[in-house]
């Protein structure tokens, strides 16, 4: 695998000729939507086929997979344009396998909102082991909200992907005794009733596991919280369901090294099947643009967590979200706009702005002006994604988590497919 950075004057033709690959493959697999106008500084992933096959009349994916001793999922990962395509077209070239030697197996967890474009979902599912659907919340009356997730749960299972329900324990406890979180942690009967509600919802929707997070838990409630989570996890496991816990550390924790939100979490990690470490080093819409955090801080945090959680029970979160900020930044006033990597590159190309790269943060960035206003964008490109996967390898992690999969990030999946054998659980 080679990551190519577009230089001034380069074209799709010149890049393809340099590496000895077809222009069609370069355009299709890297999602180049304007082949006649490349963005300087953009990144493309170059892979070299080892075995290819030309489709003949009457061929099916299953028949081709069986003939070459690969799986249908292998073919869909190697030829992403085939996802959702009902029939094969005679004359098409299908890549059976690439030359890259894979480092080993890995499980991949992808977060998605229930309104994800189904074409993007089908294109992404071959790369996933788990699909975590965002999100269920709890009302003050102790009821679970509902989301329109039935269709994507069924589609996930068709691709051998385990659907995971995400339950957000946001504002779990306050000093108000009428708060549901307070009543849940202090009343065993309410706990039992609520756990039954969760189990009924999981069963009715067809989920195969539960992922949950929580915000800061005050010291006087922590043991009660642990007791409740232990009871919840045991009930879920008796039903054969997976249980994941999300460690959503924030920018303050990354910078200060004070991991206040995880004081309870490492004990929880012994109860659940896996803990997902999400680091918001790219920033949040309502906070300062922290994309300049050194990736070494992220690495240090990962290693600190691994001192308490074994690598086989930890998932490394990788953010695909880009942020656009208007300058000058005004604290508590300026809001960042979340955009996709694709949209960020489109802006750079539209304004003919070269994309730069910061090796300290492993992120791409640029600024541009429009209508008398100036904007700044920071995002992960192929180099940043590769850096995070190398970190997962260095730490011996068996699972990575992608936040989120709402846009098909071509470079991400090309790198993932070139490095690993994707595990399927069903």
What is the total tally of β strands?
18
Please give the alpha-carbon distance between the first and last residues.
29 Å
The whole-angstrom Rg is 23 Å
Strand order of the largest sheet: 5-6-7-8-9-10-11-17
- What's the main sheet like? 8 strands, parallel, barrel
Categorize the overall geometry: globular
Please summarize what this structure is.
The protein is built from 15 helices and 18 strands. It has helices at 12-19, 23-29, 61-67, 72-78, 118-124, 150-158, 180-186, 188-205, 222-238, 251-256, 265-268, 295-306, 341-350, 382-394, 410-419; strands spanning 2-5, 43-46, 49-54, 93-98, 104-112, 130-136, 162-169, 209-214, 242-249, 274-279, 314-319, 322-327, 337-339, 356-358, 363-370, 373-379, 399-403, 420-422.
Summarize the structure in words.
The two termini are about 30 Å apart. The protein has 15 helices and 18 strands. With about 425 residues, the chain is an alpha/beta fold. The radius of gyration is 23 Å and the shape is globular. The chain has two domains: about 1-100, LysM domain (Membrane-bound Lytic Murein Transglycosylase D, Chain A), CATH 3.10.350.10; about 105-420, TIM Barrel (Alpha-Beta Barrel). Helix 14 packs parallel to helix 15.
List keywords for this structure.
TIM Barrel; 5-stranded antiparallel beta sheet; 2 domains; Membrane-bound Lytic Murein Transglycosylase D, Chain A; 8-stranded parallel beta barrel; alpha/beta; 426 residues
Mind sketching the topology for me?
Layout lengths: L1 E4 L6 H8 L3 H7 L13 E4 L2 E6 L6 H7 L4 H7 L14 E6 L5 E9 L5 H7 L5 E7 L13 H9 L3 E8 L10 H7 L1 H18 L3 E6 L7 H17 L3 E8 L1 H6 L8 H4 L5 E6 L15 H12 L7 E6 L2 E6 L9 E3 L1 H10 L5 E3 L4 E8 L2 E7 L2 H13 L4 E5 L6 H10 E3 L4
Parallel strand pairs: 5-6, 5-17, 5-18, 6-7, 7-8, 8-9, 9-10, 10-11, 11-17
Antiparallel strand pairs: 1-2, 3-4, 12-13, 12-16, 14-15, 15-16
Helix pairs in contact: 7-8, 14-15
């Amino acid at each position: 695998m080679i990551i190519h950075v577009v230089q001034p004057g380069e074209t799709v033709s010149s890049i393809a000729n340099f590496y000895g690959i077809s222009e069609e493959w370069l355009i299709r697999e890297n999602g180049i939507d304007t082949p006649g106008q490349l963005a300087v500084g953009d990144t493309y992933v170059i892979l070299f086929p080892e075995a290819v096959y030309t489709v003949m009349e009457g061929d099916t994916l299953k028949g081709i997979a069986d003939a070459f001793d690969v799986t249908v999922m292998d073919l869909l990962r190697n030829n992403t344009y085939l996802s959702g395509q009902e029939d094969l077209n005679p004359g098409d070239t299908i890549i059976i396998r690439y030359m890259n030697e894979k480092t080993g197996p890995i499980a991949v967890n992808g977060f998605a909102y229930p309104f994800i474009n189904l074409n993007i979902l089908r294109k992404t599912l071959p790369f996933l082991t788990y699909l975590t659907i965002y999100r269920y919340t709890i009302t003050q009356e102790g009821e679970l909200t509902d989301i329109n997730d039935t269709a994507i749960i069924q589609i996930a299972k068709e691709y051998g992907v385990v659907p995971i329900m995400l339950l957000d324990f946001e504002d779990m406890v306050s000093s108000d005794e009428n708060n549901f979180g307070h009543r849940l942690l202090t009343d065993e009967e309410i706990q039992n009733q609520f756990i039954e509600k969760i189990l009924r919802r999981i069963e009715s929707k067809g989920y195969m596991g539960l992922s949950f997070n929580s915000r800061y838990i005050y010291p006087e409630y922590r043991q009660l919280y642990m007791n409740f989570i232990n009871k919840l996890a045991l009930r879920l496991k008796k039903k054969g369901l997976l249980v994941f816990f999300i460690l959503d550390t924030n920018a303050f924790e990354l910078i200060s090294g004070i991991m206040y939100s995880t004081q309870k979490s490492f004990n929880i990690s012994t109860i659940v099947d896996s803990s997902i470490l999400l680091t918001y080093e790219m920033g949040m819409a309502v906070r300062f643009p922290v994309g300049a955090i050194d990736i070494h801080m992220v690495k240090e945090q990962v290693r600190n967590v691994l001192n308490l959680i074994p690598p086989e029970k930890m998932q490394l979160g990788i953010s695909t979200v880009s942020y656009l900020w208007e300058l000058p930044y005004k604290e508590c006033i300026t809001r960042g706009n979340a955009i996709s990597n694709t949209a960020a590159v489109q802006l750079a190309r539209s304004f003919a702005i070269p994309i730069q790269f910061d090796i300290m943060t492993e992120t791409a960035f640029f600024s541009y002006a429009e209508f008398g206003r100036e904007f700044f964008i920071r995002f992960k490109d192929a180099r940043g994604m590769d850096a995070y996967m190398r970190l997962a390898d260095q730490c011996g992690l068996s699972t990575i988590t992608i936040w989120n999969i709402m846009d098909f990030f071509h470079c991400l999946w090309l790198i993932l497919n070139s490095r690993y054998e994707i595990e399927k659980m069903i």
